[in-house]
Amino acid sequence: MDEERTAAWWGRRAWELLSAVRARAPLVHCVTNLVSMDIAANALLAAGASPAMVHSLREVPEFTPRCDAVCVNVGTLSEGWLPSMRAAASAGRPWVLDPVAAAASEFRMEACLSLLALRPAVVRGNASEILALASRSLAAAASSSSSSSTFKGADSTHDSGDALQDAKALARSTGAVIAVSGAVDYVTDGERVVGASNGVAMMQKITATGCAATALIAAFLAVVEEPSDAMAAAACALAVFGLAGEIGMESGAKGPASLRMHLIDALYCLDEQTVTSRVRISLHSHHLTVITDRESCTPRKSSSRIQFVRYRPGMGILNSEIDGH
Ligand SMILES: Nc1ncnc2c1ncn2[C@@H]1O[C@H](COP(=O)(O)OP(=O)(O)O)[C@@H](O)[C@H]1O
Ligand SMILES: Cc1ncsc1CCOP(=O)(O)O
Ligand SMILES: [Mg+2]
């Protein structure tokens, strides 16, 4: 993924992937929570995919290998479902993990960590979930995050940007693409970061929109040519879902219930002109702050933009400049 990938390139890529989903109608196996089943299945159908909510361990080993992608979501986890989740994740299909309310209990966190070890292609969560998961998963690396003090169940108490550094570290340590949803959806493979800024805040007031977005990522994952395109699948799915939310709001939604309806209609009706002109994905340029004198510092990372800051004890930051690479 190069810097020359412009906003226009992303718009075309999003349309390509949505068109491929519509043309190929990938079968997406969801082992997902009871709250999300309806909206996730409807979002998948509206996008052109074929949803299947199957969770009996008697069926999963036979069913999942015949599917194109898998979505595992721990939102209403119970002991009986965990083996099904593990079996679905181990079936050799590309799969996405949604660690809903990862910090809710030790049982849930352990389940998420054990699923993470089964190498999802993508993990999509809100900022609080990604922070909690990273802080446990990277405990040995002394992650500085602590999310439990403000834990509020399935809803985030953080902005997506708060989880960006932890998301990158988690991506590097697990090999998964990490997607942090929010006002900007950040997607990272540990090195590169793209931000998708489609969406409306009202989407947070519809239960299980995050779960539906994760299911849509699985559908997009099913149609990418290379597993290494997982980042594009996640970014485009999130942008397309957010765009459907924007159009849903413009279509006269008065609140969460009517937005839910309009969003699903908008997803179904998206056309090339709308997707290519309105998808907003861009490379996120991040700054590494180096507190030093410009002259005395040799940049250690050439892939980032480096911010040189002149700092004097007792006087704070005097000035700064950005070095682009
Ligand atoms: N403040 C916001 N502005 C615009 N879109 C948002 C905002 N917050 C969340 N979204 C969108 O809502 C969807 C669900 O994300 P989020 O609420 O973070 O997940 P979850 O439901 O898992 O907590 C995503 O498509 C995301 O882009
Ligand atoms: C409210 C709730 N409780 C258990 S799962 C669930 C839905 C969570 O959906 P989302 O993660 O998309 O907010
Ligand atoms: Mg969620």
Written overview of the protein:
This protein is an alpha/beta fold and 325 residues long. It folds into two domains: 7-283, Ribokinase (UDP-N-acetylmuramoyl-L-alanine:D-glutamate ligase, 3-Layer(aba) Sandwich); 287-323, no CATH class. 40% of the residues lie in helices and 18% in strands. It has helices spanning 7-24, 37-47, 60-63, 82-89, 106-116, 127-137, 164-174, 209-223, 230-250, 256-269, 272-278; strands at 27-31, 50-53, 69-73, 95-98, 122-126, 177-181, 185-188, 193-196, 281-283, 287-291, 305-312, 316-323. It has a nine-stranded mixed sheet with strand order 2-1-3-4-5-6-7-8-9, with helices on both faces. It has a three-stranded mixed sheet with strand order 10-11-12, with no helix packed on it. Helix 2 (37-47) runs parallel beside helix 10 (256-269), helix 6 (127-137) crosses helix 7 and helix 8 (209-223) crosses helix 9. The model is unreliable at 140-147 and 287-325 (pLDDT under 50). Bound molecules: adenosine-5'-diphosphate, 4-methyl-5-hydroxyethylthiazole phosphate (TZP) and magnesium ion (MG). Residues 126, 155-156, 181-183, 185, 199-201, 203-204, 209-210, 213, 238, 241-242 line the site of adenosine-5'-diphosphate. 4-methyl-5-hydroxyethylthiazole phosphate is lined by residues 33, 35-36, 75-76, 100, 154, 207-211.
Notable traits:
12 strands; kinase; UDP-N-acetylmuramoyl-L-alanine:D-glutamate ligase; binds magnesium ion; alpha/beta; binds adenosine-5'-diphosphate; 11 helices; single chain; magnesium ion binding; binds 4-methyl-5-hydroxyethylthiazole phosphate; 2 domains; three-stranded mixed sheet
